[in-house]
Amino acid sequence: FAHHQNKEYDQSIEGFKRLTYAFNDQQDPKILADYAAIPAYNVACAYALKGNKDQAIDWLEMSIKLGYKDWEHIRTDSDFDSVRKERRYLRLLADR
């Protein structure tokens, strides 16, 4: 089961990365947030669920830079349980 689940995560990661890269040079903040930041956030979630902490935090940081601003959702999203105590994760949420 775990192997099958990992394969699904990998497919999701690749699809969401393609979306992020396709829209990450948009100038319109709304398009950027909806079509680049949200897929980047989903990549972060998938990496966190796989236990790839560094990639999860890298992609969470990218999603924030692209316009993801739902701080309460980030704080409570169980997908990030594996990184919740990581210094970089805590730094991203400091003062927000």
Describe the structure.
It is a single chain. The protein is mainly α and 96 residues long. Helices cover 73% and strands 0% of the residues. The protein has five helices and no strands. Helix 1 runs antiparallel to helix 2 and helix 2 packs antiparallel against helix 3. The longest helix is centred in the N-terminal third of the chain and has 22 residues. The protein is flat and about 35 Å long.
Question: Which key terms come to mind for this protein?
Answer:
flat; 5 helices; mainly alpha; 96 residues
Label the overall shape: flat
Terminal CA distance reads: 37 Å
SS elements, strand count:
0
Order of helices and strands: HHHHH
Q: Give the oligomeric state.
A: single chain
- Helicity range: over 70%
Radius of gyration: 13 Å
Main beta sheet, described?
none
Continuous helix count: 5
Structural class: mainly alpha
Proportion of residues in β-strands: under 5%
Provide mean pLDDT, rounded: 92
Indicate the low-confidence ranges by residue numbers. none
Helix and strand topology:
Layout: H1 2-23, H2 29-50, H3 53-65, H4 71-76, H5 87-93
Characterize this entry briefly.
The chain is mostly helical and 96 residues long. It contains five helices and no strands. It is flat, with a radius of gyration of 13 Å.
